[in-house]
Write a structure and sequence with these properties.
It is built from ten helices and 16 strands. With 339 residues, it is of the alpha/beta class.
């Protein structure tokens, strides 16, 4: 295990260019360059229509093929949040990237809405990879997957099952088991209560077609999925964007979420892996545990030193320039070496 330590001392600023038009130009009569930076696409996942944003490298050449990366964000989120942010940044580094709305979220189909179903999300990632393989501009032998927070958990599990994912990377991964969830959801009693509520919600849905919801986040309602002063989800300048709902979380989620255990997948993950994490992110020992259990010998962890207490550093990797720039820089080097 190679673990690197770095102290964040200053803000790393990556240059941003204004979005350009989609007008094509011709260079030397042979190379077709396009100034398009993003297009909205659709693909199918188990019969449902999913909507995504496909990002292109600067000076994209329509006669070439490019390595590609599927990007996934935290639980409950949509493509315009951290998945889209990282997808844009990786595209600037020369990759074709895809951030999409999982089923039940955003512009994609699927009911109940706001149902965080890990098995479905894992399958959606696989189908996003399959979609990229249909594109003439994608080097189909070099498709990677990247996840933030819970998106890391789903991405790792998808990569352990799908040989079409050639390399996988995570940032601020959320990886839990039956013991870890007790730390966040009220111990054994709290976890079992939520699971029973989910079963009841599923029964109601099956019998009446009615969905049972709670708030996704609240600072006053302790029944919310996230209860506390988590600025990323509360601040309109950060993650509290119009495309995301703070008021809707399907109670049916709890059974699927709280019983998920990604750790058995580690022994099947036999491809290049790169992980960015810190003691200030969520469940740092669990990320180390998963990393150690991964079958691949081609794996590296980049550990970030921070004074922020766990889990508050987690949110910095969602959108703060210092952490995002660091993660993009290190992960880009990994993907360029492995895709």
């Amino acid at each position: 295990m190679r673990t690197l330590i770095i102290v964040l001392a200053s803000v790393l600023v990556l240059g941003c260019k204004d979005n350009q038009s989609n007008q094509n130009i011709t260079k030397n009569n042979t190379t077709e360059l396009t100034h398009k930076t993003m297009e909205t696409i659709q693909f199918k996942s188990e019969g449902l229509n999913l909507v995504g944003n496909l990002y292109y490298p600067e000076n994209y050449d329509a006669n070439k093929t490019y390595p590609a990366i599927v990007c996934s964000g935290s639980w409950t989120t949509v493509k315009e949040q951290m998945a889209g942010l990282y997808a844009k940044r990786f595209a600037k580094e020369g990759f074709i990237t895809l951030a999409f709305d999982f089923r039940n979220y955003g512009e994609s189909e699927g009911v109940p809405r706001a149902w965080e179903n890990p098995a479905m999300k894992i399958q959606d990632i696989k189908n996003a990879v399959a979609y990229l393989q249909t594109l003439s501009e994608v080097d189909t032998d070099n498709i990677g997957a990247f996840g933030v927070c819970a998106g890391s958990m789903y991405t790792l599990m998808a990569a352990s099952e799908d040989n079409n994912i050639k390399a996988v990377a995570t940032t601020a991964s959320w990886l839990h088991d039956a013991e870890a969830v007790k730390l966040f959801y009220g111990g054994e009693e709290g976890v079992q209560g939520k699971i029973e509520a989910a079963k009841a919600a599923k029964k109601t849905y099956a019998e009446t077609g009615e969905f049972t919801y709670i708030k996704a986040i609240s600072t006053t309602d302790d029944t919310a999925a996230m209860f506390g002063e988590y600025d990323y989800y509360l601040n309109p300048e950060r993650g509290a964007i119009p495309q995301w709902s703070a008021d809707r979380f399907a109670v049916a989620t709890w059974e699927d979420w709280l019983t998920l255990d990604p750790f058995p997948s580690a022994k099947n993950l036999d491809k290049p892996l790169f992980m960015v994490h810190s003691d200030g992110c969520v469940l740092p020992d669990y990320t180390k545990k998963y990393f150690d259990a991964v079958a691949s010998d081609d794996k590296e962890m980049f550990w970030v030193e921070t004074e922020l207490a766990s889990p508050m550093h987690q949110f910095s990797f969602y959108d703060q320039e210092t952490e995002v720039a660091l993660a993009v820089d290190k992960t880009t080097k990994f993907f360029k070496s492995n895709l």
